[in-house]
Amino acid sequence: MNDATNLGTAVVTGATGGVGALYAQGLADRGYDLLLVGRQEKALKELAEKISKSSGRTVNIAAHDLSNAGELNTLASRLSGDSSVSLLANIAGTSSFSPFIKLGSDDIAQTIAINVTALTQLSHAVAPGFVERGKGTIVNFASVLAFRPWAEFNVYNATKAYVVMLSQSLQADLGEKGVLVQVVAPPATATPFWANAGFNVENLPAKAVMKSEDLVSAALVGLDNGESWVLPSLGDVSVWEAFQSARTELVKSMMNGTPAERYTKG
Q: Which residues, at least 6 apart from 75, have a Cβ–Cβ distance to it below 8 Å?
């Protein structure tokens, strides 16, 4: 352990998932102590022991179901009162692959609770401390599906679009206060997420699916570089820049109090 390298405590939700565990390891290797958040206490303890042994960092756990309002409030209160927290990685996510009219109400509620409510409330818990200290990082994992809806991932699509829009608002609000709000938007990634959602990832073209190790490696490089947007599979950044520019022009064109001619009677 190198005591000279201490970047504070990084909180990682969804820590026992394939991406979360790898990302947590990468943060520890960079000098962060960790608070690992997940539902399965046994798995959290095993991961904490593994990362602590390999990195020499202090690794604590918090076993919570983030879809449970009471447990979420408990975690949020803990984070808001912990001045050692310097990074929050909102990686926990869930979905159900189903036509909208066949989607269960419990599945809808859980997807929104974890992907939207938990991410928002935990970000809200750490943000005041980050602003007060003039530094801190919030990493929100979104998805390429935030930009390209897939019918059977209907609610998931919407929650990830929310993550993008909230993050962009926070970038404008908190960026000048020393807080980095970063969005990671991966393509389909080979993790248990797909099976849990009820979809076989092998049905996708092999070239469209990224290895979890590659995703995490790219995400951590983006973190090292302090990037606001990490697009692991996008080779030509000018495509993203054109998208952002087109969106800006769209909004400018719509900020007009006069009805468009096609909507006026002749």
A: 37, 62, 64, 66, 122, 125
CB 245 within 8 A of CB 252: no
Q: Which CATH architecture has domain 9-235?
A: 3-Layer(aba) Sandwich (3.40)
Decide if 250 contacts 243 (C-beta within 8 A). no
* Nearest CA-CA partner of 144 in 157, 127, 132: 157
DSSP per residue, 227-243: -SEE-TT-S-HHHHHHH
Give the pLDDT of residue 266.
65
Which residues are known catalytic residues?
A: 156
Cα distance between residue 9 and residue 32, in whole Å? 6
Q: Is 150 exposed, middle or buried (0-12, 13-18, 19+ CB in 10 A)?
A: middle
Given a contact cutoff of 8 angstroms between Cβ atoms, the answer to whether 185 and 146 are in contact is yes
pLDDT band at 72 (very low <50, low <70, confident <90, very high): very high
d(CA 26, CA 223): 11
Work out the angle at residue 132's Cα, subtended by the Cα atoms of residues 162 and 25, and round it to the nearest 5 degrees: 60
**What percent of the chain is predicted at pLDDT more than 70?**
98
What does DSSP say about strands 189-190 and 136-141: parallel, antiparallel, or unpaired?
A: unpaired
**pLDDT value at residue 2:** 45
- Tell me the DSSP string of 250-266: HHHHH--SSPPGGGS--
Token pair listed for 130: 């980050």
Confidence label for 202 from pLDDT (cuts 50, 70 and 90): confident
Nearest to 189 by CA among 106, 104, 93: 93
Tokens of 109: 């509620």
